[in-house]
Design a protein that fits this description.
- The protein is of the alpha/beta class and 361 residues long.
- The protein is built from 16 helices and 10 strands.
- The strands form 2 sheets. The protein has a 5-stranded mixed sheet with strand order 2-1-3-10-4, sandwiched between helices.
- Helix 5 crosses helix 6 and helix 12 crosses helix 13.
- The protein starts with 22 loop residues before the first helix and ends with a helix.
- 42% of the residues are buried.
Length: 361
């Protein structure tokens, strides 16, 4: 740090004859030209410039749990520079498991996680200080695609069905659907966890599984390969927090303005996706690695047209459904209420800010 003279008997040169290297040097000069009080004020500003430069972006680590159209708003917000415009240096990290993402969020490795609400509730019921601050979507968007020779749901008996991971949204969805058809997923068939949505598609095309639970745009890609949709879970309108936006209590308490800025950037990302198809196609292609325009168009029409909320609003019926599903394996969920897992402050702030009216006049 350059030394700043606070006393001098030398006459001050005229300002116009000085060539300042930067604003800090100019502030140092001004310290000599003002009274004692002004000197102290300017000196404080000078120290602030050196220790905390104006305009420095706040880092925010954002985790998401799947390659799915459910994350279009997040992708477009990043690619469109909306996080940066809010003064955030966003780092997006794919962690392909809602359970694992909940764990690293609780551990403080992730600031905001986008994952199925059930995983967030399960962590909270085990003592984690984790809250849902919004939902990107409020229903399950999956289908079961199978080999062409499988014609009926009854024919699934004895077959191998690929999912991403146990406890994931695809796992919860297919168990829900199979029970509607009076099939027991524990006895009548085998659910195999394969990690990624792309790996499920690969298992189908490679023949290691007989069917796979997939979501758009992967869903449309496997359809083009000749696999057939046997169960459309989306049409069942299974209300569910999918995905939820979650954060730990310490961040919500200590960094509320960062959360508010995230919410504004996310809302702008959704609005951009709704109004700029071509830009959104490019974002989807980047993160899904799918270049087929027809597949991207179909995924866009489904998610942007019918699934993604203009703001990350929370459907309480879906939250209750998630609790009911958890209650099958987590006894504490039986007496829990959806409200205890939610922090509405940031949604309320977003709505009161007038931004949504500005985006959707």
């Amino acid at each position: 740090m350059p030394k700043v003279a606070t006393k001098s008997t030398e006459p001050l040169p005229k300002l116009k004859n000085i060539r300042f290297l930067d604003m800090r040097t100019k502030l140092a000069y001004d310290l000599r030209s003002k009274g004692r009080i002004m000197k102290r004020i300017l000196f404080s500003i000078l120290i602030l410039l050196w220790t905390n430069p104006l305009g420095a972006a706040e880092r925010i680590r954002i985790g998401y749990s799947s390659i799915s159209g459910a994350y279009i708003g997040l992708w477009v917000a990043h690619d469109g520079g909306y996080f940066a415009k809010e003064g955030l240096e966003d780092q997006m990290i794919l962690i392909p498991s809602g359970t694992q993402l909940a764990q690293v969020t609780v551990a403080g490795e992730i600031d905001i996680g986008l994952l199925n609400g059930s995983s967030a509730m399960a962590a909270a019921l085990q003592g984690a200080d984790l809250k849902v601050i919004g939902n990107a979507g409020n229903k399950m968007i999956f289908s079961l695609y199978v080999k062409p020779e499988i014609k009926t749901v009854e024919a699934l008996k004895g077959k191998k069905i690929g999912i991403t991971r146990y406890g994931s949204a695809p796992d919860i969805s297919i168990r829900y659907a199979l029970k509607k058809y009076n099939l027991n997923p524990e006895k009548d068939l085998t659910l195999i966890q394969l990690g990624f949505m792309a790996t499920v598609a690969g298992g189908l095309s490679g023949g290691s599984i007989d069917g796979g639970v997939v979501s758009p745009p992967t869903l449309f890609a496997v359809e083009k390969l000749g696999f057939k949709e046997l169960i459309n879970i989306t049409d069942m309108d299974y209300a569910f927090p999918n995905p939820s936006l979650v954060a730990v209590g310490t961040i919500l308490k200590n960094k509320p303005e960062i959360i508010n800025r995230f919410m504004r950037a996310y809302a702008r990302g959704i609005q951009r996706a709704r109004n700029d198809r071509e830009f959104t196609y490019k974002s989807m292609a980047t993160y899904t690695k799918i270049q087929d325009t027809t597949v991207l168009q179909k995924a866009y029409d489904l998610y942007v047209g019918k699934v993604l909320e203009k703001a990350p609003t929370i459907n309480m019926v879906g939250m209750q459904n998630a609790l009911d599903d958890l209650a099958k394996t987590v006894p504490a969920a039986k007496n829990a209420k959806p409200e205890q897992f939610i922090d509405h402050r940031f949604l309320d702030t977003l709505e009161k800010s007038g931004l949504l009216k500005e985006l959707y006049p």
